[in-house]
Amino acid sequence: MTSAGRAGRSHHDSHRWVQKYAPELDKHTRWYRQVPDWQASSWRVDETYIRVRCHR
């Protein structure tokens, strides 16, 4: 993404997005993450793999 595409966005916007959508992502991905409890205590999502529809 170019710097022009990030105009007006901050880390606060990202934090609000995570707070809003993380529970939903957790609910929908729990089945795929069926691993032993000692491994399931931590998982990460790389933001490059999440496709977000942009409205212009």
Characterization of the model:
The protein has 56 residues and is mostly helical. The protein has 2 helices and no strands. It is elongated. 0% of the residues are buried. The model has no long low-confidence stretch (mean pLDDT 70).
Topology:
Layout: H1 11-29, H2 37-40
Protein name: Transposase
Organism: Corynebacterium callunae DSM 20147
Low-confidence stretches: none
End-to-end Cα distance, whole Å, is: 15 Å
What is the H/E string? HH
Give me the number of helical elements. 2
The helix-and-strand class reads mainly alpha
- Largest beta sheet, briefly? none
Shape: elongated
Number of strands: 0
Question: What is the mean predicted local confidence, pLDDT?
Answer: 70
Portion in strands:
under 5%
* Helical proportion, percent range: 40-55%
**Radius of gyration, whole Å:** 14 Å
Please supply descriptive tags for the structure shown above.
single chain, mainly alpha, 56 residues, Transposase, 0% strand, 2 helices
In short:
With 56 residues, the chain is mostly helical.
